[in-house]
């Protein structure tokens, strides 16, 4: 048995080094690296943290979480959705080592959540809401990156909120950018988009990722504009910190304030980060599984443990809180990644670029990277997706549109919450109208009714059963048959027994057949459960 397990583990590790997978994963890692680099820096800047903290987070998210996660395509890093929480926490504590301790404690809480299997909540997000979230992220990428593509970088790279720190909103920022655009940035972003669309169609160059060509061409074009006197300004280029020697590198690190582990403020911040980061990670994981071409299903509880390990490491090294991030993950998927090696390698590239080639990295125009995200956004929010959701019916389309709109005008978690509320409304509405869980048979003089309950009768069926029972005419004999039912919800049972108790006032005779006073939820066969867990 142990030999079989060791053989399975060995074969699963080998798949990461198969040439057919590496051929896809290596180019994908370069794409994710190019996307993640400015996002890490921008989110650190917006969070009021050192730029170094953003890089540490990206590196840990790639290497530590990438190795520990069960997802093959998910990419973790600092998330734009946490910037407000992080900025508020750093301001409130006014002590960065204390904030580091809060991030570490958040990681501990996430590991506990994973061990108690809280990740199963991720299985309850409706498909229409997840699809809406993906489409909304795509629209946000397009709308938010347009100013950067035009050369206006007053807002931080990676902002996803509708209302911006520069007192603009998503739409007013575009309008303002149209009046203050940079010719060099427009040319670079336009050429970049053309390369991204046309390069994959050229035979024999598939091994060289289009985004890498985009970056090289962008740097070259900026040199051309520099010679003509209209080069990009420093704020329109990537700005990675430059270090001089190993001593300067090690001086960037500081230890968390372990003495603050019992500080109530630190504990509250840790709990807040743990809950929000866990929800964002589960949402991202569900979304990436949706667009995985191989349709793999990622283990949610393992993901929470992996996120916890990542946050403990990031907090110890001085980084920001981490989550699985849809933008990086979707860029990874669209680039053709096959295994988690792409995620791990992107973390290694972040580390190597910071240590050895920061001056070269700082030559990259943000307009190039904006173009990459614009194309990624287009793939996420394609028109075909809206048509597909419309064809699935109003009960799917309206929650989908509600989620898209809410995420666009608020933020990820609030938008998903609104989408969930709309989806639940349609779920209850469907259960009210759909009598699949019972059958009425008229017998004899049509005054005898037999109601056969289905195999599973849940709480969601309560309202419909209540309405049906209240509409039974007087002077009727009603037989409620639970022969086929493996489970009947306690609230439904209470409704049935209350109806029997009061039915005599209408002259209704109620006979209960094969209905127990208590039901337990059916359990999965232990053998099947063990087999599923082993897989």
UniProtKB/TrEMBL annotation:
Membrane topology per the entry is:
Multi-pass membrane protein
Q: Name one Pfam family in it.
A: Sulfate_transp
TM ranges: 26-45, 51-68, 99-116, 123-143, 177-199, 206-225, 266-288, 348-377, 397-428
Specify the SLC26A/SulP transporter domain's residue ranges: 22-391
Is Signal there in the keyword field?
A: no
The cellular component terms of Gene Ontology attached to this UniProt record, alphabetical and capped at eight, are:
membrane
Location (main, coarse)? membrane
Q: Which GO terms describe its biological process?
A: transmembrane transport
- Enumerate the InterPro entries for this protein: SLC26A/SulP_dom, SLC26A/SulP_fam
Keyword NADP (UniProt): no
Q: Any signal peptide, and if so, which residues?
A: none
List keywords of the entry alphabetically. Answer: Membrane, Transmembrane, Transmembrane helix
Where in the cell?
A: Membrane
What name goes with this protein?
Answer: SLC26A/SulP transporter domain-containing protein
> What species does this protein belong to?
Pedobacter yulinensis
């Amino acid at each position: 048995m142990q030999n079989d397990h060791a053989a399975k583990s060995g074969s699963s590790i080998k798949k990461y080094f198969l040439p057919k997978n590496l051929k896809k994963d290596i180019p994908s890692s370069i794409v994710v690296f190019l996307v993640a680099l400015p996002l890490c820096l921008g989110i650190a800047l917006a969070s009021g943290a050192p730029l170094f903290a953003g890089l540490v987070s990206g590196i840990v998210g790639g290497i530590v979480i990438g190795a520990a996660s069960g997802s093959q395509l998910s990419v973790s890093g600092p998330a734009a959705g946490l910037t407000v929480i992080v900025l508020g926490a750093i301001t409130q504590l006014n002590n960065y080592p204390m904030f580091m301790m809060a991030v570490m404690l958040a990681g501990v809480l996430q590991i506990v959540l994973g061990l108690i299997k809280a990740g199963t909540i991720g299985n309850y997000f409706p498909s229409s809401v997840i699809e809406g979230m993906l489409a909304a992220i795509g629209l946000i990428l397009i709308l938010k990156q347009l100013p950067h593509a035009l050369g206006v970088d007053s807002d931080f790279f990676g902002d996803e909120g509708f209302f911006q720190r520069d007192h603009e909103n998503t739409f007013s920022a575009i309008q303002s950018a149209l009046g203050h655009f940079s010719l060099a940035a427009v040319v670079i972003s336009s050429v970049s988009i053309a390369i991204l669309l046309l390069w994959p169609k050229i035979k024999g160059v598939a091994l060289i990722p289009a985004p890498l060509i985009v970056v090289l061409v962008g740097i070259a074009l900026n040199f051309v504009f520099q010679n003509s006197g209209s080069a990009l300004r420093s704020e329109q280029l990537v700005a990675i910190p430059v270090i001089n020697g190993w001593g300067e590198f090690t001086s960037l690190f500081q230890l968390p304030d372990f003495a603050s582990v019992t500080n109530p403020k630190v504990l509250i911040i840790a709990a807040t980060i743990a809950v929000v980061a866990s929800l964002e990670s589960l949402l991202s994981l569900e979304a990436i599984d949706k667009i995985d071409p191989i349709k793999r299903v990622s283990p949610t509880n393992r993901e929470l443990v992996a996120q916890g390990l990542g946050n403990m490491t990031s907090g110890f090294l001085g980084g920001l809180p981490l989550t699985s991030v849809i933008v990086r993950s979707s860029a990874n998927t669209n680039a053709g990644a096959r295994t988690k090696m792409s995620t791990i390698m992107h973390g290694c590239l972040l580390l190597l670029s910071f240590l050895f080639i920061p001056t070269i990295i700082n030559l990259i125009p943000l307009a190039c990277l904006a173009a990459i995200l614009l194309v990624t956004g287009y793939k996420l929010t394609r028109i075909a997706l809206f048509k597909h959701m419309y064809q699935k019916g109003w009960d799917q389309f309206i929650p989908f549109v509600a989620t898209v709109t809410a995420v666009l005008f608020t933020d990820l978690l609030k938008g998903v919450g609104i989408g969930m509320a709309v989806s639940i409304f349609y779920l209850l509405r469907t259960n009210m109208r759909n009598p699949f869980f019972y059958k009425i048979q008229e017998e004899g003089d049509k005054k005898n009714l037999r109601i056969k309950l289905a195999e599973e009768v849940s709480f969601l069926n309560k309202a419909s059963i209540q309405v049906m029972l209240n509409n039974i005419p007087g002077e009727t004999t009603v037989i409620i048959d639970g022969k086929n039912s493996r489970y009947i919800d306690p609230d439904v049972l209470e409704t049935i027994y209350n109806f029997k108790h009061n039915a005599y006032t209408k002259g209704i005779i109620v006979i209960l057949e094969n209905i127990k006073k208590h039901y337990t939820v059916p359990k999965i066969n232990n053998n099947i459960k063990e087999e599923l867990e082993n897989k």
